[in-house]
């Protein structure tokens, strides 16, 4: 049963109780004229209707306030998602730029080797991380507990609750880690 149905039943019970009490009081007051009793019932019903109207207005105000809060929260979530998407895009560009620098460096090293030893066959050597790369911790190193829970098969919602992050942030961290691993291979 929802709140409105329960509230209506409360009023029905109150009216029924009022009628029972009035029924018990009427036989004791036989000396009063019948019109006075009808006036009392009418006054009671008027008070009941006024009370119902007040309660209805309060309920409408509460629902309106809740709806406004929900809309504000949705707007804040949309703004946060847009920020995270922009950060993700920026990080993707940084990773692509880093990858391009690594490729350029590899080509430069290969041309230096060719100039230094033109008769020798150059071995293909994987690019080693520079001191700049070593200074920046990997994503997995920054969030070890998050990755441990992910590897245990925990849901993104559970990880987000445990780490105090949004689901979108957890998804972004996992996605960036996958990209970082692809670029490091």
Verbal overview:
- Helix content is 81%, strand content 0%.
Short recap of the structure:
This protein has 185 residues and is mostly helical.
Number of strand segments? 0
- Which segments are poorly predicted (pLDDT under 50) over 5 or more consecutive residues? none
- The count of helical stretches stands at 7
> Kindly, what is the distance between the CA atoms of the first and last residues, rounded to a whole number of angstroms?
59 Å
The helix-and-strand class reads mainly alpha
Backbone CA Rg = 37 Å
Mean pLDDT: 82
Main sheet: strands, sense, barrel: none
Principal-axis shape equals: rod-shaped
Helix-strand pattern: HHHHHHH
Query: How much helix, percentage-wise, in residues?
Result: over 70%
- What proportion strand? under 5%
List keywords for this structure.
single chain; 185 residues; mainly alpha; 81% helix
């Amino acid at each position: 049963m929802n709140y409105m149905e329960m509230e209506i039943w409360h009023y029905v019970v109150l009216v029924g109780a009022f009628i029972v009490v009035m029924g018990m009081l009427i036989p004791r007051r036989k000396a009063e004229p019948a019109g006075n009793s009808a006036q009392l019932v009418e006054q009671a019903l008027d008070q009941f209707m006024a009370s119902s109207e007040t309660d209805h207005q309060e309920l409408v105000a509460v629902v309106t306030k809740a709806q406004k809060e929900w809309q504000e929260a949705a707007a804040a979530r949309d703004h946060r998602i847009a920020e995270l998407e922009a950060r993700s895009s920026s990080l993707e560009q940084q990773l692509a730029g880093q990858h391009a620098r690594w490729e350029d460096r590899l080509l430069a090293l290969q041309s230096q080797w060719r100039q230094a030893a033109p008769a020798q066959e150059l071995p293909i050597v994987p690019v080693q991380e520079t001191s700049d790369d070593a200074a920046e911790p990997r994503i997995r190193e920054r969030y070890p507990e998050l990755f441990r829970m992910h590897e245990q098969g925990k849901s993104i919602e559970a990880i987000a609750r445990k780490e105090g992050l949004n689901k979108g942030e957890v998804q972004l961290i996992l996605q960036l880690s996958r990209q970082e691993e692809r670029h490091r291979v």
